[in-house]
Each structure stands twice: as structure tokens, then as C-alpha cells.
Amino acid sequence: MVSKKTADSKEVDVFDLQAVEGVGKATEEKLNAAGITSVLDLAAATPRELVEIGLSAEKAEELCLKARLLLIESGFLDKEFVPATEVLERRKSMQRVTTGSSALDSMLGGGVETQAITELIGEYGCGKTQICHTLCVTTQLPRQQGGLEGTAIYIDTEATFRPERISQIAEGRGLDPQKVLENVIFASVYNSSHLQLTVKELGRYIEKYKARLVVVDSIISHFRAEYVGRGTLAERQQRLNDLLHRLLRTAQMHNVAVVVTNQVQANPDQFFGDPNKPSGGHVLAHSSTYRIFIRRAANNTRLARIIDSPYHPPTAEAYFKITEKGVEDLQEGKQ
Ligand code: GTP
Ligand code: MG
User: Is position 71 within any domain?
Assistant: First the structure.
């Protein structure tokens, strides 16, 4: 959990939905049927979802708000309007996990952050999936070695997750592959609705498995495949928007790092600059906290560049390579 409890915090069982004023047995059953089983789930839900399971719009709004307020009162969630000093304090509970490359970590200000969405963007074979695999291993490391001492949840939409690769990276780093594999929780999702449902239930699994990293590889592929043609774009963007906001709230509420991958889309209209641009349009651009562009460079190396970040310089870049150990610096011990 992100925030700290204070002396005046209210004692709340965050797994008991009936702790929320206005939730009785019947409403609880309806919510459970929709996969909402805790105050945390309810606080992360959107009123629209609750309307879909038969609640009135007013009731839906009210319950989401009350759940959030309850979490704030109990100290589980930070207040919505706070002085910047408190924001700074909140960010102190943020942690970082190493990517495996100190150059890449430095570019990111020390590694991949919890409480944020980091988006890896790049074309086929640039190494997005390899970074995700490496992070599943490094997340398990002790804090002093750049880890988060937790498990990783890997949501795969492209059928490119390879346990053998996790095992190889673990072994290359002197870890017990069997133990490392046990701490990577895998979910395969087969369409965008399934992805939405999985993300909706994520909070519960994060708590259950003590996860500190959630990977979604990739965030966009199902949406791209299912929504073909301009006419359907608005609906696609709205669903993608919902999904990303939920992911961000989950990252913040559970203090986990969320890493999503995104393909680049050829943009033949563009004559100047990079003709490849990230998929997902403005929705992804506004929802991801950090956007990292990756491309292949000379001698089978990779170049990463931050293209959108609240505080990193836009020119920040780093070279790294992919080896049997996963992501590594070009030369060990050097940046
Ligand atoms: P898409 O999902 O197709 O968009 O690509 P991606 O960005 O996810 O690429 P991915 O992470 O799958 O990178 C594939 C590249 O990683 C390969 O072309 C190899 O260069 C490298 N790679 C993958 N596995 C290994 C490995 O075991 N050892 C080494 N040295 N390199 C590997
Ligand atoms: Mg991939």
C-alpha cells in the first residue's frame, strides 16, 4: 500500500465491501458477480461499470466516491487535493527496479518506478519483450541489488512469454531458476475484453501474490486487431482510456511498477522526423507516465530514448544490449 496510516486514521477492513456506506448484502452480491470484492476494487471501478451490472447512475457514482473516501479516511489512499509537500512525501514511497542495465536505469532516474506506467515503444524485435522478461527477474532481487523483493505478474496478449527465457536470465544472474519461475505469475489474455477483465481483478492478485511488477505485453495488440477502420476509433480509444486509467490507479494504490509495451505504427503521411509513431494515439500518450522509445542500433545494440516524461530531459538516452542474462550494459560495469 502506498500511504501511511496516521493516528487519526479510521480502521477499515479493505476487503469487506460492506464497510462502504450504502453497500448491503444485495449490492455486495452484484458487485462480487462483477469481480469487485473489496473496497480497493470498488475504489478503482468506474461508475459506468457499476451501471452495467444494474446499479443506477447515481448509486454507482456514490459508491465509487464513498469507497475512495473511505480509503482516504483509513489512510490507504492519499487525499485528492494535497499540498505539494505531501505529493513529495507520497513519492518517497515510490521505489525503483533495475532494468539490468545501469545506463538504462540512469536514463530513467534510477530504474523503473512504482506508482507509474512505463510504456516501452518500438518496432518488431527491438527488445520490448526481453526487457519485460528481465524485469520479472530483477523485481525479485533484494532492495540493495535494485529489486523490489516481490513477485511479477505477466499479462501476455501476444503469446511471446517464454518461461525458458526467464529461467535462462535467472541462471545468468546467479539465481535459482526454479524459485524465480515460481514468482512470475502468468496470465494469457485472448481479446481486449478479457484484458479489461483481467486488469479489473488485478488488485486482488497483486495482494495475493505480493506482486511489485505488472507487465502487459502488449497493451494495444488486441485493440488494434479488433477495431479496424476509422469508424470504430472513438470506442476503441475510450476502452483503452478506461484500461490505462485503471492500470495507473492500480499502480498507485498498490505501489507497483506497471510496464506496458506498444508497437509502432507506420505513418506514411509523415515526411519529416520518424515515420514510425506509437500506436494508441493521444490516449496512450496521456496515460503513460513514462514513454520509452527503443530501436535497434549498430552492432546489435539497442538505443532507448525517453520521449515523454514529467521530469526527465527529453534528450535522455541510453545504449544497452540483450544477452543470455537479459538486458545488460554494453560493457559490464560501464554505462
Ligand atoms: P515485437 O513483440 O515483435 O514487437 O518485438 P519486441 O520488441 O518484443 O522484441 P523482443 O523483445 O522479442 O526482441 C527480440 C530480440 O531479442 C531478438 O531479435 C534477439 O536479438 C534478442 N533476443 C531474444 N532472445 C535472446 C536470447 O536468448 N539471447 C540473446 N542474446 N538475444 C536474444
Ligand atoms: Mg514482444
Answer: yes
Atom of ligand 1 nearest to the CA of 168: 27
Q: Which helix (H) or strand (E) segment is 138 a member of?
A: helix 128-138
Residue-averaged pLDDT of the chain: 86
The pTM of the full predicted model, rounded to 2 decimals, is 0.80
Query: Taking the alpha carbons of 320, 114, 259, 223 in that order, is the dihedral positive or negative?
Result: negative
Report which of 154, 149, 113 is spatially closest to residue 136, judged by C-alpha positions. 154
Mutation choice for ligand 1 from 129, 167, 169, 263, CB with most ligand atoms inside 8 A = 129
Domain of 57 in residue numbering reads as 1-88
CATH number at residue 77: 1.10.150.20
Ligand 1 centroid – CA 128 distance (Å): 8
Tell me, what CATH number does 268's domain have? 3.40.50.300
Dihedral sign, CA of 153, 202, 250, 289?
A: positive
The tally of domains found in the chain comes to 2
Nearest CA to ligand 1 atom 19: 125
Residue 333 lies in a domain: no
Any atom of ligand 1 within 6 Å of the Cβ of 128:
yes
Q: 276: CA distance to ligand 1 center in Å? A: 19
Summarize pLDDT for 32-85 with one digit per residue, the tens: 888 888 888 888 788 888 898 899 999 999 999 899 888 888 777 766 667 777
Query: Is 334 part of any domain?
Result: no
Nearest to 96 by CA among 245, 324, 290: 290
Q: How far is the CA of 124 from the centre of ligand 2 (A)?
A: 7
| Same domain (yes/no): 126, 255 | yes
321 Cβ inside 6 Å of ligand 1? no
Q: Identify whether residues 73 and 185 lie together within a single domain.
A: no
Residue nearest to atom 17 of ligand 1 (CA): 125
What is the DSSP code (8-state) at residue 189? -
